[in-house]
Design a protein that fits this description.
two-stranded antiparallel sheet; globular; 441 residues; 8 strands; 15 helices; mainly alpha
């Protein structure tokens, strides 16, 4: 493994782990706030226990997210010094604001965790809402910095120099809204399905069914709403990518040849050598519609992109197919879930929690696949069209040993998190016994 591959692998590893912790840390406070509100409204101790249990989970992921996020910040400077030298002054604002949001989140979480019985109940609830709002803001600000890498703006690039820097324009670049919306919804989908799946397992085991069924319902509603909205966000993102990063769109769809009425490819195995896709299902004109809102519009293929500027087609295509496939499955499950809310007899059936157990990992698989599309689809650029990734890597030798060490650290950290969460689930108090057979709404 050469240093360039090691640096990319270490960054991918760090991002891959951090994004899971970050998504859960962004979203679970909103679940917590809803259950807390239900307790204030009904005085039902079940909701209070749900809130306390979830707040401990939020604390665990806040701590791990803080550690992994801090590592990422250092890695940007250590692994990509040329990138940070030029890009840091331009998109540093969202990172500094992210730090402020993180600081507010930490204070609010401290108030919430230690405020039981000490604060007015509504003030206490507001601190929980602030945890969620600041966590979400923190995530959006980080995504804004990433979006700048896909759509660099806020400066003039003249003779290799970065002049007339405008940090506000850089932060609110053309890609920030579509990426922030798509990532925020993805976080709610992934976390919602994962949390609902955990509670669904406990329901199927008939352990503390009242507690877990109410927690399941809160998480499932958040997940289902976001999963149904996500395709709309995806369509918006696709049109945005088509206009700014045609090479990325072409790699996503393994679209080798520029053409009008371009077909949408479902599945298939890209044959890069012969510029074709084998065993794919083609939907005529649908790629043109997805990219430009017109079934006859021309869509640029990889043949219009110089070969040195083309991203790795197979990786991007497979990742995109995985993301879309997982998203479609979760959207269909979400529709079924809302139908069961009206057909209450179905809602009490065992097959509903089984669906969520099966779908439990799909959200985070989709998130990881989506980030693969975003990052690998931009290659060979670290700043789209301006700086190549190979030109930004550190000249320091021995990066592969750093990669091996960080792999071990993240592996051990994940084991610790899983153990703590398992222990937390086992400690859930039982108020109504353990023998209920139906889901309790």
């Amino acid at each position: 493994m050469d240093d360039f591959l090691a640096a990319r692998s270490q960054m991918a590893l760090s991002l891959g782990f951090h994004i899971i912790y970050a998504c859960i840390g962004m979203v679970m406070p909103f679940f917590m706030a809803v259950s807390h509100y239900q307790w204030i409204r009904t005085k039902d101790e079940v909701y209070k226990n749900i809130t306390k249990a979830w707040s401990k989970g939020v604390a665990i992921f806040f701590a791990t997210g803080a550690v992994s996020g801090t590592v990422l910040s250092f890695e940007l400077g250590l692994l990509w010094p040329s990138f940070m030298k030029h890009a840091g002054p331009i998109f540093g604002m969202p990172f500094s604001l992210e730090g402020t949001a993180f600081f507010i989140e930490a204070i609010a979480l401290g108030f919430f965790l230690y405020g039981w019985g000490r604060f007015n109940v509504w003030f206490h609830w507001i601190t929980g809402v602030v945890v969620g709002a600041s966590g979400l803001a923190s995530g959006i600000l980080v995504v804004s910095a990433n979006a700048w890498m896909n759509s660099p703006s806020g400066f003039d690039y003249v003779n290799g120099e970065y002049l007339n820097i405008d940090p506000i324009q850089a932060m609110f670049n053309q890609a920030w809204f579509s990426q922030a919306l798509h990532m925020s919804l993805a976080a709610f989908v992934a976390t919602g399905f994962a949390v609902a799946g955990v509670h669904a397992i406990m329901i199927l085991k008939k352990k503390n069914v009242v507690f877990h069924s109410r927690a399941f319902k809160i998480a499932a509603i958040f997940a289902a709403v976001a999963a149904i909205l996500q395709p709309i966000s995806g369509d918006f993102s696709a049109k945005d990518i088509a206009s700014r990063q045609p090479a990325k769109l072409a790699a996503m769809e393994a679209h080798f040849h520029t053409q009008k009425s371009a077909p949408l490819i479902i599945g298939g195995i890209p044959d890069v050598k012969n510029k074709k896709v084998d065993y794919a299902i083609e939907l005529p004109g649908m790629l043109s519609f997805l990219a430009h809102g017109d079934f006859t519009s021309e869509v640029k293929g990889l043949d219009s992109i110089p070969e040195p500027d083309q991203p790795p087609v197979s990786i991007v295509h497979y990742a995109f197919q995985v993301m879309v496939g997982c998203g479609v499955i979760m959207m269909l499950i979400s529709i079924v879930f809302f139908v069961t809310l009206f057909k209450r007899k179905w809602f009490y059936s065992a097959w509903l929690p089984k669906l969520f157990v099966l779908a439990m990992p799909l959200g985070f698989i989709a998130v990881e696949a989506g980030w693969t599309v975003t990052e690998v689809g931009r290659q060979p650029w670290i700043i789209q069209g301006i700086m190549r990734t190979a030109d930004a890597v550190t000249p320091m030798p021995g990066i592969q040993w750093s990669f091996y060490l960080f792999t071990l650290v993240y592996f051990l950290l994940s084991i610790a998190v899983i153990y703590l969460l398992y222990r937390q689930i086992k400690m859930v108090p039982v108020l109504y016994g353990k023998s209920e057979n139906n889901i309790i709404s």
